[in-house]
Amino acid sequence: MKFLGSSEKAVDDSPERNEIEVHGKPLEDTGKSRWDRSWPTIACGAGLFSDGYLNGVIGQVNTILKTLYKTEYSNSSAQKNVNSIAFAGTVVGQLFFGYISDHYSRKWALLASTVILFIFAALSAGSYSGGTINGMLQALTAYRFLLGIGIGGEYPAGSVACAESSGELKEGHRNRWFIMFTNVQIDIGFVMSTFVPMIVVLACTDSHLRAAWRIILGLGCIPPLSLVYLRLKLKEPEEFNRETMKNTRTPWWLVIKFYWFRLIVVSLIWFIYDFSAYSFSIYSSAWIAIILGDDTAIWKSFGWNTVVNVFYLPGAIGGAFISDLIGPKMALSIFVFLQGIVGFIMAGCYGLLDSSSHVAGFVVVYGIFLSLGEAGPGDNIGLVASKTSATAIRGQYYAIAAAFGKIGAFVGTYLFPIIQSNAPGGTDSVRGGQDPFFVSSSLCIFSAFLALAFLPNIGQDTITTEDLKFRAYLEANGWDTRKMGSKEYQMASSSTVDTTMGRDAEVASEKV
User: Fold this and answer.
1) Contacts of residue 208, Cβ cutoff 8 Å, sequence gap at least 6
2) CA distances from 385 to 52, 391, 497 (A)
3) I need a labelling partner for 353 at 20 to 30 A (CA). Which of 23, 61, 152, 154 fits?
4) How confident is the model at residue 357, as a pLDDT?
5) How confident is the model at residue 11 (pLDDT cuts 50, 70, 90)?
6) How many CB atoms lie within 10 A of CB 233?
7) What's the CA gap between 332 and 457, in Å, rounded?
């Protein structure tokens, strides 16, 4: 039996079930115009810009707070907490909204996360508590955690709905559409998270940094607010209406038996990717400031960091097209392996790059390292997570994998300073810069092995094909699939299982 098809048009060769037999017509045959097919993909995925901006910008805010409050900030737990706490909130948001998006609605889960993003981005900018620095930092930490919950909602609700909506688009272009409005949006957010602080600090000058960091955070309110109208107009994706289990009980034991190993592999690759990607993003501005020297203006440090982040975009955009050409599995494996090789080269040459006279060389080599990461796991891990499970449990499957990614980011932001401080010579030494690259590059090579050995091939019709395979598996185990879908689709779908037998099998699986 083919498992998830290939780069060719996917064909379901499980026990005899096919899309027309089950639903009466193919998913792409909806009668919608090109715009009606496209704009839901845009509206669902574009909110991840907020993830890139609001997670990335805290690195620049961290640099400003360290400049303003020096030892009082650097010697407190606030530095680690402010950087990392949003990741903890994101994990909570991913798991919560993953459940909501599967059992209630993709649309309303998206709208709820949008409102949370707007409210707590605003409150973060206005952080205040009794007029003390410590109280202000504690308030900022609390708001960042709650902001993370909103960011987390964008993953299972937004990305999953984006993937399902892309199934209605032209075959051969679906992967690039998904990537352009998920990972590319995150990367544009990363670029703006350094460019905007550079402009704000230039406008405010070093004499008004207390206003600058609040303005930088406050501007994060704009992206979620701009999506409210489009998301209000959204309808549930067609595939969700066909395959949802919100009107019946989910046969969890059958789900676990079918997906447990694949979910572990996807989650581990995502953990490794975010461990490096978010940690490097947050601390790169501090590294560049060290290389440039203490006398360099903060805005110049942010400017060089913007140049670094721009390197995300060629990899992410180019990788979107490559994913359609060679498939997500091969794209992920090849580019993450190359990223590991470049990382080892950079670690070996770090002593030559670690000076203000060679900052351009550092930025270029580091930028290539980042670009390869985006063309590989950056573009494709979300695509893999959203297309290797059935629609009925996709929000929760994706949420668990993405949560492992954010746990990796959370762990990375805590471990990177420890790795640097424990290096011979300390954080500011050559080894302090080399060691994070040695660790990250080793993990990249391991990710390439995992992807090549254990990920399935993913074709253009994988979402539909995977749903058909899952239906066939459920029916083979006596579960009546006519209970899947909205009320309208329940009336129109078919099953090879007798209704009475389906009820008995469902009860038996729940007891197990």
Assistant:
1) none
2) 19, 11, 29
3) 61
4) 64
5) very low
6) 10
7) 11
Give the integer Cα–Cα distance in Å for 185 and 490.
Answer: 36
Pull the structure tokens for residue 242.
């066909």
Give residues with Cβ within 8 angstroms of 301, minimum separation 6. 63, 285, 288, 289, 292
Residue 247 and residue 240: Cα distance in Å, rounded? 12
3-class SS shares of the chain: helix, strand, coil, % to 5: 80, 0, 20
pLDDT of residue 287 exceeding 80, the answer is: no
Contacts of 111 (CB under 8 A, 6+ apart): 228, 231, 232
DSSP label of 156: I
d(CA 48, CA 186): 5
pLDDT > 90: percent of the chain: 32
Contact yes or no for 288/305 (Cβ under 8 A): yes
Q: Position of tokens 């080894």?
A: 431
**In the predicted model, what is the mean pLDDT of residues 192-218?**
91
Q: Is the pTM of this model over 0.70?
A: yes
Note whether 156 and 92 are within 8 A (CB).
Answer: no
Per the CB < 8 A criterion, the answer to whether 405 and 273 are in contact is yes
CA-atom Rg of the chain in angstroms: 23
Q: Which letter, b or e, does each residue of 437-470 get, where b requires 16 or more Cβ atoms within 10 Å of its Cβ?
A: bbbbbebbeebbebbeeebbbbbbbbbbbbbbbb
DSSP labels, 58-122: HHHHHHHHHHHHHHHHHTSTHHHHHHHHHHHHHHHHHHHHHHHHHHT-HHHHHHHHHHHHHHHHH
Residue 229, classified by CB atoms within 10 Å of its CB into exposed (0-12), middle (13-18) or buried (19+), is exposed
Cβ(475)–Cβ(506) below 8 Å: no
* Number of neighbours of residue 501 by Cβ within 10 angstroms: 13
In the predicted model, what is the mean pLDDT of the chain?
80
Model confidence at 87, in pLDDT bands (50, 70, 90)? confident
Please write the tens of the pLDDT for every residue from 340-373. Answer: 998 888 888 777 766 666 667 777 887 888 899 9
Inter-helix orientation angle 183-204/298-310, to 10°: 160
Cα–Cα distances (Å) from 159 to 18, 81, 97, 395, 436, in that order, read 26, 27, 12, 9, 30
Tokens of 433: 């810069």
32, two tokens = 């919608």
Token digits for 321?
Answer: 């097209």
